[in-house]
Amino acid sequence: MMMDVSSLLHKKRGEKEYNLILKNIKLADEEEIEFVKDIIFNFKLQLLNEILTISGTIKTKVALLCSRCIEKYPYAINLNVFEEFTVNPELEDEDISLIKNDKIDIEKIVSDNVILNLPMKPICTKDCKGLCHECGVNLNKALCNCIKDKMDERLIILKKYFDE
User: Fold this and answer.
1) What pLDDT is stored for residue 119 in this prediction?
2) pLDDT at site 56
3) What is each CA distance from 158 to 15, 151, 153, 163, 164, in whole angstroms?
4) Range 52-64 average pLDDT
5) Could you give the CA distance from residue 35 to residue 63 in angstroms, rounded to a whole number?
6) What is the mean pLDDT of residues 89-110?
7) pLDDT at 67 over 90
């Protein structure tokens, strides 16, 4: 979703507030992440001299796969956003993006911020037991009958040494 900011850019100062509800956004360079709730993006555009800032909040809920038990679980996202833009190429750096054609990409801002705030190793609960390494059963839902002290045959000699 490209937002035209030309009316604001032709002033020295100005601000506008927006309350957007976004649906069906594709997160850049991510495997399929399912949005459980619509994305609510409330933000304020402020222009001071040649710098346009976007500050606001993003609220949504996504379904993530737990890295231990491989079950989907809802993950709430509630984050603050602060982005800076300019039309002056001399002011562009790693923190200030250049505005092209008087438009900014709202979906890219949302996508980048959501991706940066997703956990690297999602875990459904702090006490998730994960999967059994032998049979693959989800240990949160059932117990397995696997032998827990199964030892690599090559290490049995060492075990006998330490047992003595």
Assistant:
1) 92
2) 95
3) 72, 11, 10, 9, 10
4) 93
5) 6
6) 84
7) yes
What residues contact 77, with CB distance under 8 A and at least 6 apart?
A: 58, 59, 60, 61, 62, 114, 117, 118
What pTM value is reported for the model? 0.75
Q: Decide the pairing of beta strands 39-48 and 72-86.
A: unpaired
Q: What is the DSSP letter of 76?
A: E
Going 61 to 120 to 82 to 103, the CA torsion angle's sign is negative
Higher-confidence residue of 27 and 59: namely 59
Q: Which of 57, 92, 104, 89 has its CA nearest to residue 76?
A: 57
Tokens representing residue 101 in the block:
């054609």
Scanning the structure block, which residue is given the tokens 């993003």? 58
Name every residue whose Cβ is closer than 8 Å to that of residue 5 and which is 6 or more positions away in sequence: 45, 52, 99, 102, 103, 104
Chain position carrying tokens 């996504």: 62
d(CA 164, CA 162): 5
Residue of higher predicted confidence among 99 and 142? 142
Specify the residue for token string 């506008």.
16
